[in-house]
Amino acid sequence: xxxxxxxxxxxxxxxxxxxxxxxxxxxxxxxxxxxxxxxxxxxxxxxxxxxxxxxxxxxxxxxxxxxxxxxxxxxxxxxxxxxxxxxxxxxxxxxxxxxxxxxxxxxxxxxxxxxxxxxxxxxxxx
Length: 126
Fold this sequence. Notes:
By secondary structure, the chain is mainly α. Helices cover 62% and strands 6% of the residues. It contains five helices and three strands. Strands 1-3-2 form a three-stranded antiparallel sheet. Strand 2 and strand 3 form a beta hairpin. Helix 2 packs antiparallel against helix 3 (56-64), helix 2 (39-50) crosses helix 4 (75-94) and helix 3 packs across helix 4 (75-94). It starts with a helix and ends with a helix.
């Protein structure tokens, strides 16, 4: 019984850390394309950049906290909400030659070449 309690406490600590990381990812960076991307898109981009592969569930948690596309409930609408948000993000970034890659069935990622393009774009002061 004590082992089970300790396992539950460890799991709670892990979940609290994951929630903290998600909240940090949702905070908009001061130079994160304020003139190009919305707050939601900036948060999604930050989440995708911070992980080797940002899985769908992780991105679902981010889009859940931005009032867009939240009129409907249910598993299918949550999935579509995130995919539409990432589709719009990819569309905007493509104008600047930056591609967010898809790892089918898992999530999204940005390769090293596109990270460099993104870094250069963020450093421009236009």
